[in-house]
Amino acid sequence: MPPSSSASGPPPGSSESRRDDGEPGREALRGASEAEALRLRIEALERENLALRAEAARSPRRNPEEGEQRFRYLFDRSTDAVFLIQADGPEAGRILDANAAAAAMNGFTRQELMSMRISDLDTPESASRVSGRLQTLLSEGSARFTVEHRRRDGSLFPVEVSAALAEFEGRKCVIAFHQDITDRTRVEEERRRVLQQLESLESDRRLRLEIAAKAGGIGFWDWDLRTNEVFYSVEWKQQLGFADHEISHRYEEWHNRLHPGDVERALQRITDYMEGRRPDYTNEFRLRHKDGTYRWIYSHGEALRNAGGKPERMLGCHVDVTDHKLIEIALKGSEERLDRTLEALEEGVVVQDHNGLIVYSNPAASSILGLTSDQMAGRTSLDPRWQTLHEDGSPFPGETHPAMITLKTGLPQRGVVMGVRKPSGDLSWISIHSLPLRLSQEEAPGVVCTFADITERRRAEEGFRHEAERIRTIFETEPECIKTVSADGRLMEMNPAGLRMLEAPDLQAVVDQPVINLILPEDRKAYL
Is the pTM higher than 0.70? Predict the structure, then answer.
């Protein structure tokens, strides 16, 4: 057992003045994990004790108390709580000595601890396992585990223990390093909670997208331009009245169903986009339904290009816009037919004349915007009562409303996202499409706007972003090293705490390096 005498400074030959046989230097500890660092400290104390015994044998004139002073210096100066515990016999588990950090951590004096057994500090559940842990140490030589301690004031706290078997004064002892892991446990629990919330949110988001795709009848396609094979989703096939197994993954399934009057224009649109004459790909054409009729389809896609800019794959979606086309037709014909068609739609529909005045709105528009048809009638997109916003929260000027752009240019506007403040104060988010519309042969073209309520989708996306930012904050502020490693062992990302451990100026200094190269040679065996 280390003597109880104290030393005011480093004795001659201590680890303070000779780092090669004392406590490991900071560089070694920085490159190792926490568990490895604790193991190195235990080994350092054991090496120091063996070195002292060897020096005493070689130098019989040396002061016999000097070795004890040096060991006591290392024992007392450790920032971790250190216990020396009887390993076997009737007194197994008795605390033979404890340093100042151990006394402070548990709220007892050193003299009080030396009159106790280690199980006296444990909660009943942890205390019941002391005998088994001592047997493990006697058979295996070392152990690492977590226990729960009770302080003198009765408060409980988690402790991580790294212990090894040692021999002092001819008897087997356990030297154990104890570390209060309250803060780490709290951070880990918070991290687990956030990850669970994020997984739940992502699952909900995927479910909402699947529901939206099915409810909205959105069909997806994936065209491999190298093989000319096309994947068509179940919804894509259902738009045309087919079951999944009734349409193969051949390009001709789409091409052969094109309306003869749309073939040339539809193919030219694709060619123009692939050859860079159009910045994006949108298309409208008719496809033959299983029942022999034709459905109007709005198609939007994006090409994936190789390093040379050549498109190799194209992905996109089909939306059945037959109802929208029917709206255009219905407006030219019977008002009764028009009303029946529009009232059946779940999307909001607003018709404005050539001056921008609202002349018609369907029930869905009233529900989404929180206004009756009478309240909307006669308004224009320039009316400040709309209180419209861009996605970034800035005001959405009426003159840039999709309806006003279409009236001015004669061009359709698609997928414009806008926030609209209802009279109740609630904010609704809508996705707007606008098309030019001739209300009569005598008047200049007006405009028809259709819009869908995307408020719930926006909320889900906002929640996802907030959780992602929260996890990033935990990653940036975590005091322990967190790193992402590729399958071939190269560093992909590391948090600031890890970069400080490596003394790296920034991530670019170490990214893409084999992780094994960042560990000191003498520690690589433990890492592997």
Answer: no
